[in-house]
TrEMBL record:
It comes from Candidatus Kaiserbacteria bacterium RIFCSPHIGHO2_02_FULL_59_21. The keyword Chloroplast does not apply. SMART domains: AAA. GO terms for molecular function: ATP binding; ATP hydrolysis activity. Residues 10-233 form the ABC transporter domain. InterPro entries: AAA+_ATPase, ABC_transporter-like_ATP-bd, ABC_transporter_ATP-bind, P-loop_NTPase. This is ABC transporter domain-containing protein. Keywords: ATP-binding, Nucleotide-binding, Transport.
Length: 247
C-alpha cells in the first residue's frame, strides 16, 4: 500500500496478527488501522490481552504482522513494559547503551545524557546501579534512554504500570515536561483511562484485537491533573469506560 499522500508520521493500515498453537489459531489483532501525526501524543487503551502490546512490538520491529502494512517516516524508540535497565550498568551507562550498540560517538552521547539527567533532576543517580533506585526513578531513567537519540516516534508500553498511584501521577507530569524538550511523537499503550486522557491528543480504544473507536481529547495544553475534573474530561472518561467495561 502507498502512503505517499498521508501526512502522518506513522500510518498503520489493516494490521493483523495470528498465532498458531498446535491446531488452534489465536487472533491477537484484526484489521487495525491508526495514525500518529508529527508532535502528536496518541494512546491506545484496552483491557489486558486486548492486543495492545502485540501491536507495539510489531511497530517496534520486535514482531511481524500476519497481514496489513505500516509506514513510519523516521525512526522509533521502544520502551517495553519492563524498564529493561541492565543491572551491571550505572544509570548513565544504561543511557549510553543505544549509542554503544550503534557505535556512535560516546562523547557526544555522554554530553547529552548528562544534560538530560541534570535538566530533570536525576544527576545524583548517574553513578548508581538500577538496584539502588526506586521504581519511579527506574522508569524515568528508562524514559530518558528512550528519548535520548532524538527519534521521531516513542513507543511506550505501559511505562507507569509498576508505579503506585501518587508516583504514577508525578511521573506522568514529568513525562510531559520531558516531551516539551523534544519534537517526538508518542504512541502509548495503557489500560488506565485517566492516564490516557491526561497525556493524549488522540485515543484509540482497542478491544478483542480491533479498534473500536477513536476520540480526540478536548483538553487544552499545557496539562494539569485538575483538568481531569472538567465536564468534558469526565464525559470522555465515561464514554471510554463504557467501551472498556466487561459486558
Amino acid at each position: 500500500m502507498n502512503f505517499s499522500n498521508s501526512a502522518a508520521l506513522l500510518a498503520v493500515r489493516g494490521v493483523g496478527k495470528t498465532y498458531e498453537t498446535g491446531k488452534k489459531e489465536i487472533r491477537a489483532l484484526s484489521n487495525v488501522s491508526l495514525e500518529a501525526k508529527e508532535g502528536e501524543f496518541v494512546s491506545i487503551i484496552g483491557q489486558n490481552a486486548s492486543g495492545k502490546s502485540t501491536l507495539l512490538k510489531i511497530l517496534a520491529g520486535v514482531g511481524m504482522p500476519t497481514s496489513g502494512v505500516f509506514e513510519l517516516r523516521g525512526d522509533a524508540s521502544y520502551m517495553p513494559q519492563d524498564h529493561a535497565l541492565l543491572p551491571w550498568r550505572t544509570v548513565e551507562g544504561n543511557l549510553l547503551l543505544p549509542a554503544d550498540i550503534a557505535g556512535a560517538s560516546r562523547g557526544r552521547a555522554q554530553e547529552k545524557a548528562r544534560a538530560l539527567l541534570s535538566a530533570f533532576g536525576l544527576e545524583q543517580y548517574a553513578r548508581l546501579y538500577p538496584a539502588a533506585l526506586s521504581g519511579g526513578t527506574k522508569q524515568k531513567a528508562a524514559l530518558l534512554r528512550t528519548v535520548l537519540h532524538d527519534h521521531s516516534l516513542l513507543l511506550l508500553d505501559e511505562p507507569f504500570a509498576p508505579l503506585d498511584a501518587l508516583t504514577r501521577i508525578e511521573a506522568q507530569t514529568w513525562l510531559l515536561a520531558l516531551l516539551e524538550k523534544t519534537e517526538a511523537s508518542v504512541l502509548l499503550v495503557t489500560h488506565d483511562i485517566r492516564e490516557a486522557i491526561f497525556l493524549s491528543d488522540t485515543i484509540y480504544v482497542l478491544g478483542s484485537g480491533r479498534i473500536k473507536e477513536k476520540f480526540d481529547v478536548p483538553i487544552p495544553r499545557p496539562r494539569r491533573h485538575e483538568q481531569l475534573r472538567a465536564p468534558e474530561a469526565l464525559e470522555l472518561e465515561k464514554r471510554l469506560f463504557s467501551l472498556l467495561a466487561p459486558v
